[in-house]
Amino acid sequence: MTHHQRLLIIDFGSQVTQLIARRLRELNVYCEIHPYQNVTDAFLADFAPKAVIFSGGPDSVTRAGSPRPPESVYAMGVPILGICYGQQVMMQQLGGQVDGGKISGGGGTAEFGRAFVTPAESKISLLDGWFADGKEQVWMSHGDHVSQIAPGFEVFGTSPNAPFAITADKAKNFYAVQFHPEVHHTPNGKKIYENFVRLAGFSGDWTMGAYKDDAIARIREQVGDKKVICGLSGGVDSSVAAVLIHEAIGDQLTCVFVDHGLLRLNEADEVVSMFRDNYNIPLIHADESDLFLGELDGISDPETKRKIIGKLFIDVFQKHANEIEGADFLAQGTLYPDVIESVSFSGGPSVTIKSHHNVGGLPEKMGLKLVEPLRELFKDEVRALGRELGLPETFIGRHPFPGPGLAIRCPGEITRDKLDILRKADAVYIDQIRKHGLYDDIWQAFVAILPVRTVGVMGDGRTYDYACALRAVTSVDGMTADYYPFTHDFLGETATRIINEVQGINRVTYDITSKPPGTIEWE
To answer: Is 468 tagged catalytic?
Structure first.
């Protein structure tokens, strides 16, 4: 993306650094996140950012060896915005003073959670649109605090525990805030980013129309006259990647759709119909449901399920891919969050929460080069690209669906009978959500069939059938989530429909767990 105006986000380990990038992308500004240890003098010269943002982070600048950006970043002559730890490291490097709080062994006052910033007498363009009511709510999360600002800086906003909440060196276009404007707990935080990119001279040249044309040109240059195979799941990411690549190279692309028998009701038919009939994309429909369900028979541990599915997926995909003569490239729907999360901030291994069936092993095992045309995009940008490509809204707006499919919505052992019950209950639930006009308000919704049977009564007779749990969450990016606040009328109506229409279920519950502490999926 070298011909786009580019903004560099130097990551110091904040849990919300991705949100900074999302806010900027929403403003049509292309940006990339890079861990501080990768940002060298040579990197800065090559990347040539038009502006730089320092993220927050968990460390203390008072600690010897704590993260720093290279000193050369301050000599580039571009605007810099420091956020939380980013403010503190800027002050420390430029001649100010940071005092440790209780967390880092000092005696200073920490500040976590909601706070209110009030303006100083001096004005600054970074704060245009702020302080209309005399103060602004912000989200603080810092143990240390700036006790003396660097030479050339002035104070433009204060909070009860952060006398230097907003500071700037106007002559150098260096800005620093102690709070996090990227989180929704800072309601007017978006204005900070709008003003910053305006001050930095960004024209907003990052659009999906431009990205589509760029991506098609890059795919053609990378692939040439060779063939590409693409693993198609029917989800948004793989669907958009497949249509984009097909637009670039036509019949040089073949998609392999592995049907593992763990899909939703009628899903396999819908996927095959869309790609064969609507797009005329060469497609291998590998119905391997007997293989997958046979290997999963008697397995109840969730991580074991995922690993079985992952291994079989690779084996089946490779078997059918070998039928495509001359394939040199493998296409994947890798997204930018996957890229960010694959680079460990500390350089050490991350904790495995759950295995992903399409990550690791496949390219090396098959000896293929990767084509990843979505690796610079967030999920909402992929949907926007899908619209540019003319995909039907029914596909673009679909809720995320996990690679292991219904296997992880069926805690305990998996049987064909349980899967059939689950498919029907899920179809009723989603139909209810659509009928009430709620589908687009929800990030993800599904039914989980529970590994317990309960006593019920129907028509004066005793039943002993499965209980199920409804799950629906709201989220921005799936990293955190909260349950959707359905009305009791909706839940009652939905429970009645499922019990009446789905034989095998006699009890319906609603899962109101947030993420964290739970995950969105049940396994």
So the answer is: no
Q: Which domains does the chain carry? A: 6-199 (3.40.50.880), 220-396 (3.40.50.620), 413-510 (3.30.300.10)
Whole-number pLDDT of residue 292 = 95
Sign of CA pseudo-dihedral 397, 267, 305, 426: positive
255 is catalytic: no
What is the distance between the alpha carbons of residues 484 and 479, in angstroms, rounded to a whole number? 16
Query: 31, 84, 255, 410: which one is catalytic?
Result: 84
- 111, 182, 521, 523: which is the annotated catalytic residue? 182
Omega into 151 within 30° of 0, i.e. cis?
no
> Alpha-carbon torsion 427, 432, 435, 438, what sign?
negative
Q: Given the DSSP bridges, would you call strands 227-232 and 327-331 parallel, antiparallel or unpaired?
A: parallel
Q: Note the pLDDT tens digit of each residue in 341-394.
A: 665 444 433 333 333 434 445 666 677 888 999 988 888 889 999 999 998 887
| Residue among 180, 260, 320, 357 flagged as catalytic | 180
- Evaluate whether 331 touches 241 at the Cβ level (below 8 Å): yes
180 is catalytic: yes
On the question of a cis peptide bond just before residue 516, with omega within 30 degrees of 0, the verdict is: yes
For the chain, state the CA radius of gyration: 26
> d(Cα 233, Cα 262) in Å, to the nearest integer?
11
